[in-house]
Amino acid sequence: MCVTLVCDLLIKIFVIFVLFQPQHVMIAYLFMMNIMLESATITKRSYSDQSVRGYITERTCWWNEVCKEEFQTLFRCKCPAWSYCRSPGKYYNAVCSMTETGYIWDQPNSQWRGQ
């Protein structure tokens, strides 16, 4: 994608250079570079899953501890309020992390299994 964008940008700059004076070319070049940099920013994406609704044990996880094992229907423990139960994808172990990107397993407030 970036290669196509750069080639398209170079063609536009060449056309402007042929048709207009050099000072206009510089202004057009700076304007197009600004647009290219804004469009090339990386957007972090996350997905929130609310399918798991219970807990195996009534305890709080440590930071970076596995809060949900892959293919399990219950959380092992509850992450602290300042962290998320997250994994790189749906079929991976999830750990308590402060990072809000990736596959986020939304944990219910206080619905322990033993109630």
- What about the largest sheet? 5 strands, mixed
Instruction: Provide the spatial order of strands within the biggest beta sheet.
Output: 1-5-3-4-2
Instruction: Note the gap between the termini.
Output: 53 Å
Question: What is the oligomer described by this structure?
Answer: single chain
Relative strand content: 15-25%
Helix content: 25-40%
Number of strands: 5
H-E order: HHEEEEE
The structural domain count equals 2
Kindly provide the radius of gyration, computed on alpha-carbon positions and rounded to a whole number of angstroms.
Answer: 24 Å
Number of helices: 2
- The outline comes out as rod-shaped
Give average pLDDT, whole number: 80
What structural class do you assign from the helix and strand content? alpha+beta
* Uncertain ranges: 111-115
